[in-house]
Design brief:
Length: about 200
């Protein structure tokens, strides 16, 4: 009986070992396949990340280039506007000075008449008092013109300067050197360093 049990038991043990070996042989390829899938998945994720990063980097570079282009365009437009503004301001200032100059020229004619009257003013009687009133008006008019930037051009005892003086005669004078101004016939004036009216003068040859 015991021998019969042993005979029946041994084959059972051998059969179990074969089944375990077969099972292990079947599991090993599955494990390798799983690890390969993990590696492939990780590689695919990495490649996708690299591709997405490259695409985002390209979009960022393009956006930065566009922003730089817009900034340069804005700076050019701003510079053009500032130049335009300065040009308009210069033109307006020039027009204002010209307009003021044309108006002030009319007052210079009145000033000339008052100045001539002062040269022959009476010194006695009622006429002297009247002349004092005319002189007061004359000085007030000079003050108004000076407040507007009008200045008298130096001419007495000066050398003739064609940019500021206008010669009505060139004559011999033993008391003067060549190009000396002998006499100022009519005063000249400037405004803002611009000749409003040249001085009329007699010049020595």
């Amino acid at each position: 009986m015991e021998e019969d049990k042993k005979k029946h038991t041994k084959p059972a043990a051998g059969s179990t070992g074969k089944r375990a070996a077969a099972s292990e042989a079947q599991t090993s390829p599955l494990r390798e396949t799983g690890e390969d899938l993990k590696k492939e998945t990780a590689s695919a994720v990495e490649e996708q990340f690299i591709a997405e990063y490259a695409a985002l980097r390209t979009e960022l570079d393009q956006a930065l280039d566009k922003a730089k282009e817009n900034e340069n365009g804005w700076l050019r437009e701003r510079a053009d506007f500032m130049n335009y503004k300065k040009r308009i301001e210069r033109e307006q200032s020039f027009l204002k000075e010209n307009l003021a100059g044309e108006i002030l020229k009319k007052y210079l004619v009145v000033l000339d008449d008052l100045e001539r009257a002062m040269k022959v003013r009476p010194t006695e009687g009622d006429a002297a008092a009247w002349a004092d009133g005319i002189e007061l008006v004359f000085r007030k008019l000079i003050g108004i013109l000076e407040s507007e930037g009008v200045k008298r051009i130096p001419a007495e005892s000066e050398k003739f300067d064609p940019t500021r003086h206008e010669a009505i005669t060139h004559e011999d004078s033993p008391d003067h050197e060549s190009d000396d101004i002998i006499e100022v016939v009519r005063q000249g004036y400037t405004i803002a360093d611009r000749v409003l009216r040249p001085a009329l003068v007699r010049v020595a040859r």
